[in-house]
Amino acid sequence: MTTAYSGKHYFFQEEKVLINVVGVFILTTLFYFFGAMLRLVDELSLFWPLNGVMAGIFARYAFLNKPLYYFVCYLAMIVYDSVTTTWGLASLAVNFSNMIFIVLVARLLIRDQVRSKGTPRAINALNLFNYCLIGALFSALFGAVASIDIDDRNFLPLFADWFSEQFATGVLILPCMLTMKTPVFRERISADKIYPLIGVAVSLGASVMVGGAGSLAFPLPALIWCAVRFTLPASCLVTFLTGVIEIVLVANSIIEINSHATLITSQMFSARLGIATIAICPLIVSISVAAINKLMAQVSRRADYDYLTGVHSRSGLHEALKIMDENGNVPRQMSMMLLDIDYFKGINDNYGHECGDLVLAAFAAKVGQVVGERGLVARMGGEEFAVFCPGADAEEGYIIAEQIRNAVAQHAFEWKKNRLWLTVSIGLGSKTRSWDSFTEAFGELMPHADRYLYISKNQGRNRTSAENMPSESLTQRAV
User: Fold this and answer.
1) What is the residue range of 148's domain?
2) GGDEF domain: which residues (predicted)?
3) b (16+ CB within 10 A) / e for 304-324
4) Which among 38-42, 129-133, 148-152 has the top mean pLDDT?
5) 340-357 pLDDT per residue, tens
6) Same domain, residue pair 329 and 461
7) pTM over 0.85
């Protein structure tokens, strides 16, 4: 089974069982240690990251969802407790409740991701909320009973602490675990990225100054602002850190929410549930923004690139030229060539349009490989392609054209055990002058390239025609 949430395995690998076992054991021990250091509320942890982290690990690496790795995770908890606590047999039941949350939530997340086929949808955020709710409920039921022997409280207060902690931790940590990836810093940090973070900090300060249960919601607008401005992983991380900070502030009475519950709940119970509920809002916004951006990118690509060959479409080439115009630096030397596959109609007639489509795609790939960074390749329609080379004079333009022609002639295109050999006719237009824009150069060189393409086809095809045909030595350089 492949991973449900991650395309690359940097730590765990399906075929390396020993490495996986060691990895699960180490991670479980590490995050168990973190949780144990935060046991500020009776015998239970103020913030217990282990279950959310391990549920995220098992969800990201679906091949880990086997009894062996579940047992290793459980064993690591037992070993840690046997060294650091005097809980005895009660540790078996307490840690089994942790496994209930880990296994149940991981399985639900994998099922949900398989059904949605990896598409980031806002409904998945709501599903995550529900899965944490279910996992926390069953884990708390078992854990509260198991904790009675190691805690001086009765079932209901224990259940409230177990449930609220598991639920809040899951909602805050799991989005980070499921979206986590290696950061890539491509842009400078700009003001529109700093202001949302300042808004989060200011709203947390306001929560401390104002107090009350409602103050926990103060960071929500700033978190939604972050969700709009940041990537999904970054937004999840900011939301997680904000939620943890609020939990710590409430636990230390820095934010006093003055909750006087009439039944069993404490202010920590109320705070955790409130923070978890608030955290899901920016998550939904961030996932929605990511889905919209992905859709817009797909629409843009379909408009700007030919769906069959992957090179620029006619309209996409014009858009690329406009972008180049905005960047300026228009060179004096320009070359433009039109390419037409010789006798392409015969391929469709003899082998069918499916073969023709394959040939077009392979031809475009070969042309793009030859041109590289020296120019733009576009499909103008049918079997006709254009190559625009800014900065290339007539000599260099001719060399590129001949390199294309020779590469195509020497490449066999495969189709159902048939080897198809193609040739291409090329018309080249080149000129050196002071251009106002790339768009202007393209528009002026296009008729020249079209005229010389017509000459190439009339003179026998499989040739390059230009205004001033180069010397024999230049032709040899192009081979």
Assistant:
1) 1-182
2) 332-469
3) bbbeebebbbeebbeebbeeb
4) 129-133
5) 999 998 888 888 888 989
6) yes
7) no
